[in-house]
Structures are given as C-alpha cells and as structure tokens.
C-alpha cells in the first residue's frame, strides 16, 4: 500500500481522525486537522469542538498535541477556495493534513460523508466529531488554530470583526462588507462578499 508522503512509519492497526473548520465562513482558510491518538489517551471532556467553550478547546488542544501519536493541519486559502470551490478545497485541506502525519494509519475516519483523494483506506462518519475521539481531537485542533488565525486577521484587516465572528456570515460581518467592501482575506465567490477592489488585490498573500 502506498503511504502519504509525510509518513515515516506505517501502523496497520492505528486510526486517524480527520475534520475541518471554517467551511461555511466568508473569510479565512478552511483548516483540516488530522490526529492519531494512543490507546491510553487521557482527554476528559473530549467531544465535538462546537460543543466546547473556547477556553476548554484551548486546554484540550494542548493536551491533544502532547498525547497524540501524530497530529497535523492542512489548509486551503481563499484564493484556492474561489478557484476550485469550497468542497474541493475542503477535501484538499484534508488530504494535506493526512499527508503531514508522521505515522501512516491503517484507517482514516473522516467526519461527514465525503472521501478525499488518498491511498489509505477511509471511512466517512456523519457526526463523527461527536462519536470518535480521534475525529473530535482533529476538530478541536482545526478550530483552535483557525480561531487564533482569525484573531491575527482582525488586526491586519480591522473593521470586519473577525475576532468576534471568526469569519462567519453574521449580520455585523455582512454590514461591514457592505460598508468596507471585501478584504484580501475574504472568499470572493461566496454570496454576500463581492469582488476585492483593485487596490486591495496588490496586497493579496500567496494563496
């Protein structure tokens, strides 16, 4: 069996969990997490990241990183999302997260109902972030990283409220878009965003 390019060892009995954060946002990347947990992990309260407070997620994220056999993140930035659509960009981010693991699992558990390109066996699980600890852990790592990134984007692109809504299409965010127009961090192909002004395009990062 072929292994993802980042793997340095193969473990047939080990499962990896994959989940994403930010798929429905108007701005910022979609971030995928991949986590392999040891059989004896000790992570009280581990569940779907959306059911946890930001403080609890932050505590669990550090514990997950400390205990995981391997963990990694994959990204798809707004330019790619606009170019290939959000579904394909999400699957690409998942594939990148899996490729970045240093241990190759025998089975990949994917939250949702969509498989992504990989040579490793996959099983999709709707609601898997509340059912499988490795998917819950992947969900937490993806969301905590993305939320922290949006705090940085709030400083780089002030006025949109990224620190509050983390890029989701809240009324305040849509009002800011109507007033300011989109920033280079926005997904131009998403409804309610619109084109980036020509002068702002000069500041697009390499995405």
TrEMBL record:
SUPFAM superfamilies: Ribonuclease H-like
PROSITE patterns for the chain: RNASE_H_2
GO CC aspect terms: cytoplasm; ribonuclease H2 complex
Single Gene Ontology MF annotation: RNA binding
CC cofactor note: Manganese or magnesium. Binds 1 divalent metal ion per monomer in the absence of substrate. May bind a second metal ion after substrate binding.
UniProt record similarity statement: Belongs to the RNase HII family.
Start and end residues of each RNase H type-2 domain: 13-202
Protein name, per record: Ribonuclease HII
Cofactor(s) essential for the protein: Mn(2+); Mg(2+)
PANTHER family listed in its UniProt record: RIBONUCLEASE H2 SUBUNIT A, RIBONUCLEASE HII
UniProt superkingdom: Bacteria
GO BP terms: DNA replication, removal of RNA primer; mismatch repair
This protein's record includes keyword NADP: no
UniProt EC number: 3.1.26.4
HAMAP family in the cross-refs: RNase_HII_B
Catalytic reaction(s) noted: Endonucleolytic cleavage to 5'-phosphomonoester
Top EC group: hydrolase
Binding locations of a divalent metal cation: 19-20, 111
Principal location listed in the UniProt entry: cytoplasm
Function, as annotated: Endonuclease that specifically degrades the RNA of RNA-DNA hybrids.
Cellular location(s): Cytoplasm
Gene3D superfamilies in the cross-refs: Ribonuclease H-like superfamily/Ribonuclease H
Organism per entry: Desulfomicrobium norvegicum (strain DSM 1741 / NCIMB 8310)
InterPro entries: RNase_HII (IPR022898), RNase_HII/HIII (IPR001352), RNase_HII/HIII_dom (IPR024567), RNaseH-like_sf (IPR012337), RNaseH_sf (IPR036397)
Keywords: Cytoplasm, Endonuclease, Hydrolase, Manganese, Metal-binding, Nuclease
